[in-house]
Amino acid sequence: MSVPQLTDAERDAALAELEGWTLRGDGKAIECTFEFDDFVQAFGFMTRVAILAQSQDHHPEWFNVYNRVEITLTTHDAGGLSQRDVTLAKAIDHLL
Ligand SMILES: C[C@H](O)[C@H](O)[C@H]1CNC2=NC(N)=NC(=O)C2=N1
């Protein structure tokens, strides 16, 4: 499935709407770190993100240690950032 990468203008507009998400150094992904009270809260969040990701057929790269969850969103099919990353990021934010 072909997904277009965002243009620079589309990317900047999306980032302006996404609080806490930043552009990765290479410009091909967005990243956000979430902190919770403990591991159970963090893992519960990850479970809800997993269900969301599956429903959107768009999956995060992520790292968890104890109460911290670092999420990176990029579109492998596009080789960079696409609208699918922005849509998933917004949906993740709505979980909180
Ligand atoms: C076939 C399936 O739709 C694709 O492999 C999907 C699955 N999840 C995905 N997740 C992400 N992050 N990028 C993709 O390009 C992607 N592609």
From TrEMBL:
Domain of life (superkingdom): Bacteria
Top-level enzyme category: lyase
Keywords (A to Z) from UniProt: Lyase
One Pfam family from the record: Pterin_4a
Enzyme Commission designation: 4.2.1.96
Reactions performed catalytically: (4aS,6R)-4a-hydroxy-L-erythro-5,6,7,8-tetrahydrobiopterin = (6R)-L-erythro-6,7-dihydrobiopterin + H2O
CDD domains: PCD_DCoH_subfamily_b
Family indicated by similarity: Belongs to the pterin-4-alpha-carbinolamine dehydratase family.
The protein, known as: Putative pterin-4-alpha-carbinolamine dehydratase
